[in-house]
Amino acid sequence: MTTTTPPVAAGSQDTSGRSTRASRVRKRLNSRTATLVAIVIAVVWTIPTFGLFISSFRPEPELKTTGWWTAFRDPQFTLQNYQDVLFGQSASSGQLANYFINSLVITLPSVLFPLAFAALAAYALAWINFRGRDWLYIGIFALQIVPLQMALVPLLSFFSRGVSLGGVTLMPAWNLDGAQNFAQVWFAHTCFALPFAVFLLHNFISQLPKDLMEAARVDGATHPKIFRSIVLPLVAPALAAFAIFQFLWVWNDLLVALIFAGGSDVTAPLTVRLAELAGTRGNEWQRLTAGAFVSIVVPLLVFLSLQRYFVRGLLAGSVKG
Amino acid sequence: MNFDFADQAPKLMMLLWGLVAFAVVVGGLLFVLDAVPAHFARRREAQLVLAAANGAPLPRRTKPRDGLFALFFLLPTVLLLLIGLVVPAIRTTLLSFMDGSSQNWVGLDNYRWMFAEEAILRVLLNTLVWVTLVPLVATAIGLIYAVLVDKARMEAVAKSLIFMPMAISFVGASIIWRFVYAYRGEDQEQIGLLNQIVVSLGGEPRQWLLDSPLNTLLLIVIMVWIQAGFAMVVLSAAIKSIPADIVEAARLDGVSPWQMFWQITLPSIRPALIVVVVTISIATLKVFDIVRTTTNGNYDTSVIANEMYNQAFRYGQNGQGSALAVFLFVLVVPIVIFQIRNLRQQRREG
C-alpha cells in the first residue's frame, strides 16, 4: 500500500481543473479499454459454443459446405440432426438416446453413495472423539493428491479377480456382465470421489457451533440423532454443492467410464460414445454438433439453475485449503 | 425410430437395484446406530432397576462408547478408500517395477524406458508445456476478467459467460473446438472459424491439428478455455473480500486503477491466486480427455495421462503404464507441498 502518499484534500482537486479534466478523460478512456477487453474475452469465450449450437440446427449439406456464420444470410434450420443422432436407425448414427440413459444410470448412484458416506465420515471426523482421529483425517485429506491413474490398473483386476491378502479373501471377484457392469462404475466413482467429498463436507460440518452440539449431547441425543436432525439440515447447502460437483464430474467423465464401463452400448455413457464418434466419424459434423449438445444440455441446466451452490462449494473447497 | 424402451428395462432395473442398495446400506447403518445404543440403554435401565430392588450398590455409569459410533460412521468410507485407492496405489507402484504382464520383476527398466524412448520424452515435454502454459494463461485471463467486470453492469451475466465452459465436458469442449479448427481445401468454403479468419486475412487454410508443435498449443487453448472460468470465480470472490476501507483509502489517495491493481488488489488476493494456480496445475497434469478426443495423441500431441492409458489399456503394458502413473504422482507431490507450505505461512502471518 502506498501509505506514504499524502491524501489529496477535496478542495485542491477542484483548483487544478486542467489536470482533473485530463484525468477524467483518461479514466473514461481506461474504462472504455477495460470494457472493450472484457467484451472481447466474453465474445471469444462464447463464440465457439454458439457456432456449434447454430450448426447443430443446420441441414447436413449446408453444414458441410458453408460456415455457420452464413446461416444468418440464408437461414435454414432443421431438427433433423437431433432426430438422427438420438434415434437414428443405422449403427453409425449415434443412437444417443440409449447412451443418454446410460449416463443417467451411471450418474445417480455415483452421486448418492459418496455423498452419504462422506457426510457420515465427515461428521465422525469433526464431532466424535476417538483415538487417531486427526491422523485419519490427514490421511483421507492426503489421498486427494493421488491421481486416479494410480488406481486404474489394479482396481480393474480387483473386479475381475477379487482382492485377497495373504490367502484371506477381502472382496470376491465380481463376475459381472451386461447391465450389471454399472455397479463397477459406481464403485470406482464412489471411491475416487470420497477424499474430496470428506474434505469439503468436513470444512462445513466442523464449523457448526460447538455449543449447539454440546447442548444436544447434554439433552441425551445420540450421534446418529444429532447427525440426522441437526447436522444434515444445517449443512444442506454444502451437500448440494458436493452433489452438483460430483454430478458434473461423473456426467462429464471419460476416463473412468472408458475403463470400467467399456464401449458396449449397454453401459457406455454419452462421453464415451461421443469420443468414439469424434474418432471414427470426425467429419460427420451434423452428428457431432447435435451430439455434443445432447451431452451438454443436462449439465448446463443443472449448472445454470444451481450456480450459487456450485460457486459456494468451489470457494469452500479450494480457498480454505 | 429405433428407440425401444424394452432395451432400456434391464438398465433401469439395475438403477433401481443401485438405489435400493443405497437405501439399504445407508438406512441400515443409521438404523443399527440407533438400535444398538437404545438396546444398551434398556439393558442398563434393567440393571439399575434390578440393583435398586436388591438394595445392591448402583452399577457405575459407563462412558458412552464414542469409539464404536466412530467406527460405524467411518466404516464405509475407510473400507472403500482402502479397496479403491490405497491398495491399488501401492499395487501400481509395485507393478511399475514389473514387466508388461506383471509376472517378473524388472527393476527400474520401465523408468529407464520412459526416459530413453524418444516418443515418451516427447510426451513428457508436451506435459511440461501444458503444465506451464495452462495455469499461467488461464489464471491471467481469469484475473483480468474478474477485475474488469467487478462492479460492472450485468456482472452476473458477464461472469456466467466465462464460467459456462466449466459445465461442459472435456469431450464436448473438444468437439466444440475441433469445429473451430475444422479444415476445408483451399478451393472450398471454410467451415471452421479459425481457417475462415485466416482466409479472410489473405492466408491459406491449414490443417491445424496436424502441425506439430502448433497443435499442442491449440489443444492447450481448449484447456485454458475451460479453466479460466474457475480462476475467474475464485479470484472474483477474493477481490470482493478485500476490505472496503483499504480500497476507499487508496482511492482517496488518488491511486490510479493501474496502481490499485498492482499495489492493493494483487497482494490482497495472493493466497487465492496460489490456490488457483495449484489447482489448475494439478488438473492440467492429469489432462486426458482433450487429447484423446481431438488427436488421440497422434501428431506429437500425447501427454502423460494419455500415454498411461495407451500403455496399460491398449498395448497391455501394465509395467510401463504403471511407471507413467507413478511419475504423474511424483509430479503432483511438489506442487501440493508448495501449497501446504504456503498455507502454513499464511496461518502464521494471519
UniProtKB/TrEMBL annotation, chain A:
<feature type="transmembrane region" description="Helical">
    <location>
        <begin position="99"/>
        <end position="128"/>
    </location>
</feature>
<feature type="transmembrane region" description="Helical">
    <location>
        <begin position="226"/>
        <end position="248"/>
    </location>
</feature>
<feature type="transmembrane region" description="Helical">
    <location>
        <begin position="183"/>
        <end position="205"/>
    </location>
</feature>
<protein>
    <submittedName>
        <fullName>Carbohydrate ABC transporter permease</fullName>
    </submittedName>
</protein>
<keyword id="KW-1003">Cell membrane</keyword>
<feature type="transmembrane region" description="Helical">
    <location>
        <begin position="287"/>
        <end position="306"/>
    </location>
</feature>
<feature type="domain" description="ABC transmembrane type-1">
    <location>
        <begin position="100"/>
        <end position="306"/>
    </location>
</feature>
<dbReference type="Pfam" id="PF00528">
    <property type="entry name" value="BPD_transp_1"/>
</dbReference>
<dbReference type="InterPro" id="IPR000515">
    <property type="entry name" value="MetI-like"/>
</dbReference>
<dbReference type="InterPro" id="IPR035906">
    <property type="entry name" value="MetI-like_sf"/>
</dbReference>
<dbReference type="GO" id="GO:0055085">
    <property type="term" value="P:transmembrane transport"/>
</dbReference>
<feature type="transmembrane region" description="Helical">
    <location>
        <begin position="254"/>
        <end position="275"/>
    </location>
</feature>
<feature type="transmembrane region" description="Helical">
    <location>
        <begin position="135"/>
        <end position="163"/>
    </location>
</feature>
<comment type="similarity">
    <text>Belongs to the binding-protein-dependent transport system permease family.</text>
</comment>
<keyword id="KW-0812">Transmembrane</keyword>
<feature type="region of interest" description="Disordered">
    <location>
        <begin position="1"/>
        <end position="25"/>
    </location>
</feature>
<feature type="compositionally biased region" description="Polar residues">
    <location>
        <begin position="1"/>
        <end position="20"/>
    </location>
</feature>
<keyword id="KW-0472">Membrane</keyword>
<feature type="transmembrane region" description="Helical">
    <location>
        <begin position="34"/>
        <end position="54"/>
    </location>
</feature>
<keyword id="KW-0813">Transport</keyword>
<dbReference type="GO" id="GO:0005886">
    <property type="term" value="C:plasma membrane"/>
</dbReference>
<keyword id="KW-1133">Transmembrane helix</keyword>
Automatic annotation (TrEMBL), chain B:
<feature type="transmembrane region" description="Helical">
    <location>
        <begin position="217"/>
        <end position="239"/>
    </location>
</feature>
<feature type="domain" description="ABC transmembrane type-1">
    <location>
        <begin position="124"/>
        <end position="341"/>
    </location>
</feature>
<keyword id="KW-0813">Transport</keyword>
<keyword id="KW-0472">Membrane</keyword>
<feature type="transmembrane region" description="Helical">
    <location>
        <begin position="322"/>
        <end position="340"/>
    </location>
</feature>
<dbReference type="InterPro" id="IPR051393">
    <property type="entry name" value="ABC_transporter_permease"/>
</dbReference>
<dbReference type="InterPro" id="IPR000515">
    <property type="entry name" value="MetI-like"/>
</dbReference>
<feature type="transmembrane region" description="Helical">
    <location>
        <begin position="128"/>
        <end position="149"/>
    </location>
</feature>
<feature type="transmembrane region" description="Helical">
    <location>
        <begin position="68"/>
        <end position="90"/>
    </location>
</feature>
<dbReference type="Pfam" id="PF00528">
    <property type="entry name" value="BPD_transp_1"/>
</dbReference>
<protein>
    <submittedName>
        <fullName>Sugar ABC transporter permease</fullName>
    </submittedName>
</protein>
<feature type="transmembrane region" description="Helical">
    <location>
        <begin position="12"/>
        <end position="33"/>
    </location>
</feature>
<dbReference type="GO" id="GO:0055085">
    <property type="term" value="P:transmembrane transport"/>
</dbReference>
<keyword id="KW-1003">Cell membrane</keyword>
<dbReference type="InterPro" id="IPR035906">
    <property type="entry name" value="MetI-like_sf"/>
</dbReference>
<keyword id="KW-1133">Transmembrane helix</keyword>
<comment type="similarity">
    <text>Belongs to the binding-protein-dependent transport system permease family.</text>
</comment>
<feature type="transmembrane region" description="Helical">
    <location>
        <begin position="260"/>
        <end position="283"/>
    </location>
</feature>
<feature type="transmembrane region" description="Helical">
    <location>
        <begin position="161"/>
        <end position="180"/>
    </location>
</feature>
<dbReference type="GO" id="GO:0005886">
    <property type="term" value="C:plasma membrane"/>
</dbReference>
<keyword id="KW-0812">Transmembrane</keyword>
